[in-house]
Design a protein that fits this description.
This protein has 286 residues and is α/β, with parallel strands linked by helices. It has 14 helices and 5 strands. A 5-stranded parallel beta sheet has the order 2-1-3-4-5, with helices on both faces. It starts with a helix and ends with a helix.
């Protein structure tokens, strides 16, 4: 949509060109501002704003803004808005959220539903057979591992999370056929995690790895039967950047936990969750 506007500018009247340039400069703001503000920023009259929208083939400003908002949302995965030293708080708010949403939508578009389905099958089978499920992570990924343990515990599934490298290696040594370990790492280069994953695999346990494509940790899962859930989001350190990878990993865990709940839940899961909520609520101060 923006490319079409850019290509049409030269054929528009000068006043309408100013409106078009405003759209191209900040399409997100244009989609949210009232017509009076748009007219003031373009230095044109309000009817000129309407004429521009109609010259682009839309019924009017409302129709144009609706389509523009949709186009901007669909284009989010392809934007990256770096935080600058001159940014105000409102600018930072928009940029951090935009970049996070961009990472989520990019994952949604790129994710392998086949790999996710295999991971859900493995986790559900492990749950139903009474075998061990463990989550390994270090640093920010250790926080994700703890969250994963919590989510699966809510499903009535006994799971363990380790964020200490030595504990991960020792625990992996005790795993065997039928057990499942989910290893979480943004870089996929942590030595202890790689060792633990390799030990678990050699002992016959299923390994599900959430990490970047092409990382050393991802290469371990190339063995038959082991699963790689690609989560590609490089973190930048030249200036502040939010830890989007952790949020991305949490979202992947949410998808896995929800799918496993649907797979194993049946009629027993809902009253179990309600019982947990009632018991927790009774412990709160009124």
């Amino acid at each position: 949509m923006l490319d079409r506007i850019k290509a049409s500018l030269s054929s528009l009247a000068p006043a309408e060109q100013r409106v078009g340039k405003l759209v191209l400069a900040d399409p997100r703001a244009f989609a949210n501002l009232p017509v009076s503000e748009l007219a003031d920023r373009s230095h044109v009259s309000k009817p000129t704003v309407i004429r521009f929208c109609r010259s682009m083939g839309y019924d009017g400003l409302s129709d144009f803004k609706l389509k523009l908002a949709g186009s901007v949302s669909e284009g989010v995965p392809f934007i990256h808005r770096s935080v600058d030293v001159d940014d105000k708080t409102g600018d930072v708010l928009v940029k951090v959220i935009d970049n996070t949403v961009a990472a989520f939508l990019k994952y949604r578009n790129d994710a392998s539903s086949v790999a996710i389905e295999k991971a859900v099958d493995a986790l559900a089978h492990t749950c139903q057979s009474g075998k061990r499920i463990e989550f390994f992570g270090v640093g920010n990924s250790g926080i994700v591992a703890q969250d994963a343990q919590h989510k699966f515990f809510r499903l009535g599934v006994s799971a363990i999370a380790y964020s200490d490298g030595h504990m991960q290696v020792m625990s992996a040594s005790l795993l065997g056929p039928g057990d499942c370990v989910v290893v979480i790492s943004n870089s996929g280069r942590t030595r202890d995690l790689m060792d633990a994953c390799d030990i678990a695999r050699k002992n016959g346990a299923m390994t599900i790895v959430i990490t970047a494509s092409g990382s050393p940790l991802a290469s371990i899962t190339q063995q038959a039967g082991h699963i790689h859930l690609a989560a590609d989001h490089p973190e930048g350190y030249d200036r502040y950047s939010p830890m989007v990878s952790r949020l991305l990993h949490l979202m992947i865990i949410d998808v896995l936990a929800t799918c496993v709940a649907l797979r194993i839940g049946g009629d027993k899961l809902q009253p179990l969750l309600q019982g947990m909520k009632d018991n927790l609520r009774s412990k709160r101060y009124t």
